[in-house]
Amino acid sequence: MRIDHFRGFDEFYAVPWGSLDAVNGKWMKAYGKELFNVLNEQFGNINIIAEDLGIITESVIKLKEHTLFPGMKVLQFAFDNNPLNPYLPENYEKNCVAYTGTHDNDTLKGWFEKLDESTKDCVIKSLGINGYECTDTNTLVYEIIDILSQSRANLCIVPLQDFLCLGSEARMNTPSTLGNNWTWRVKKELLTDDLAEKIKTIAVKNGRYKTACIT
């Protein structure tokens, strides 16, 4: 289970009841540590992913470390020419969940095709991709998925739209917009044996494939 806005368990922004806006609100300390301690006592180790994207304070980091919940790494946020960018695959810690993108991001293909040329070059150089042809975005998508899968992240999540090399027409959600969100549906004919084999190949190559165990 993924907890969105994990920082809200450390601090939350409180607005007086009846306010017409948030001007008079203030940050208040939450009791996340105590809550998660109780949950752990009652249910044992719980599988939770902490959404820790955006502005994260030191106290949020400490709470995440206390819970041992893995945070999130979104590859699309990695390319600012900073070799220490925490979203670059080589900078991932083991206890994290790596994404090509989330439901709020464009598809990998749609995202890349919208980048300016200098940022495209940054992506290619930062990931060490050689021999890329600008007209072959589908191959690049699989190169990026493969590189993400090679990272130390305990878990990698790749949306089906990326494995299918679909563009922005298959984007799931655009935040702060109305109308066409959450309408994409996969067509049965796209779920082919060839697609399954491509996914399996990457998973096996990078030690992320587990065969069924029948006893």
UniProtKB/TrEMBL annotation:
User: Its GO biological process terms?
Assistant: carbohydrate metabolic process
EC category: transferase
EC number(s) given by UniProt: 2.4.1.25
Q: Which Pfam families match?
A: Glyco_hydro_77
Q: What is this protein called?
A: 4-alpha-glucanotransferase
Q: Which reaction does it catalyse?
A: Transfers a segment of a (1->4)-alpha-D-glucan to a new position in an acceptor, which may be glucose or a (1->4)-alpha-D-glucan
Say which family it is in: Belongs to the disproportionating enzyme family.
- Show the taxonomic lineage: unclassified sequences, metagenomes, ecological metagenomes
- UniProt-recorded Gene Ontology molecular function terms: 4-alpha-glucanotransferase activity
- Which residue windows are coiled coil? none
Alphabetically list the UniProt keywords. Carbohydrate metabolism, Glycosyltransferase, Transferase
Instruction: List the PANTHER family hit by this protein, alphabetically.
Output: 4-ALPHA-GLUCANOTRANSFERASE DPE1, CHLOROPLASTIC/AMYLOPLASTIC, 4-ALPHA-GLUCANOTRANSFERASE DPE1, CHLOROPLASTIC_AMYLOPLASTIC
